[in-house]
Structure formats: C-alpha cells, structure tokens
Specification:
Layout lengths: L1 H9 L1 H17 L4 H7 L8 H20 L9 H19 L4 H20 L7 H17 L6 H25 L6
Helix pairs in contact: 1-2, 6-7, 6-8, 7-8
C-alpha cells in the first residue's frame, strides 16, 4: 500500500509494473491473507494503525482479484483502466504538434512494439500495453536469471524510454501542467 501509493504519485509506469508484480505475488500466496501477513506484511515496520490499513489493503486486492476472476491469470480492472488511460493520453500526444519529443520516442519504439506483438502473438493489446507486457517479461526473465540478448536489451530500452516519457507527461497532465 505504501509503496503503491508512492509509485502511483511519482511514476505511473512503475506503479503499473509494481501492481502486476504484486498480483503475481498474491497468486503465489494463493490469495490467502494469512500467508500474505506472514510473507509480506511482517516485513513492514509500522504502527498498529498503519499495519491494520496495510492488511485491509491486501484483503481488498485479494477480494478484487477473486471477484474479477484474475486469481490465476490476468490483471485487475483498476490496473487495466490505468493502462487504457495511459494509452488514451499516448494517442492524444501523438496528434499534438508541440509533442515532437514524444512522437520521436514512439517512432523509436514502434518497430520493436510490432516485433514484440508478433512474437508474443498478442494482437489484442494496444501499443502501450505491449510495452508494459514486454518490460514485465524482462523483469521476470531477470528474476529467473535467464540470459538476455543485446537485441532484447535494445528493444526494452526503447519501451522503457517511451513509458518513462509517457509517465512524465501523465504527471504533467494530472497536475494541470499539460493540456491535451
């Protein structure tokens, strides 16, 4: 809860990847709050009130995952909505004449997005979701100790650059500093 709030406020892209990882961690705990308390919550050094809030937050995530049928696979609607909101901003930024830096970042990533979409056989996802899927796959590869070839690193860098710039634009838009 504490980390998620901070990431949501500071970098929406990191927040999404964090929440995807958290979904997988909750699945690994079999969506069992007692396991979550033992494996995760005990690591927080907080007062009783904050600890109760953290437990409640994890319980609500578990409830959402169960009620939305993403207990085995997929993402909570809350996170999917955030990705879709980012994609809407992405599409708007591509049409604005004063966003040449963003357009360049997208052009730099576009062929890699197409390639990843083809390799992953994922024709349903929008370009921004493809970037998130790719970066999350990279994270999982790193965690599992798999070797990552230089071409993959280059592709991922283009996704990372695009999402970092989009996250920055999102913060500007949310704070009223960017009109779209």
């Amino acid at each position: 809860m504490i980390i998620a709030k901070q990431k949501r406020r500071e970098n929406i892209a990191e927040y999404i990847l964090y929440m995807w990882q958290l979904e997988d961690i909750l699945r690994a705990c079999n969506l069992d709050i007692e396991t979550v308390k033992q494996k995760i919550i005990t690591g927080y050094k907080t007062d009783e009130v904050t600890n109760a809030e953290i437990i409640g937050w994890y319980e609500s995530l578990i409830h959402m995952m169960r009620s939305e049928g993403v207990d085995k696979l997929g993402h909570m609607q809350l996170i999917k909505n955030t990705v879709n909101e980012l994609n809407e901003l992405h599409l708007k930024l591509l049409t604005l004449s004063n966003q040449a830096d963003y357009v360049r970042a997208f052009i730099n990533a576009k062929s890699n997005i197409t390639l990843f979409r083809t390799k992953s056989n994922n024709n349903e996802s929008n370009d921004i979701e493809i970037c998130f899927n790719a970066l999350y796959s990279l994270l999982l590869m790193k965690i599992s100790g798999k070797e990552i070839n230089p071409e993959t690193v280059d592709s991922m860098e283009s996704f990372s650059n695009l999402l970092a710039l989009l996250a920055h634009k999102f913060n500007e838009w949310e704070s009223g500093k960017l009109e779209v």
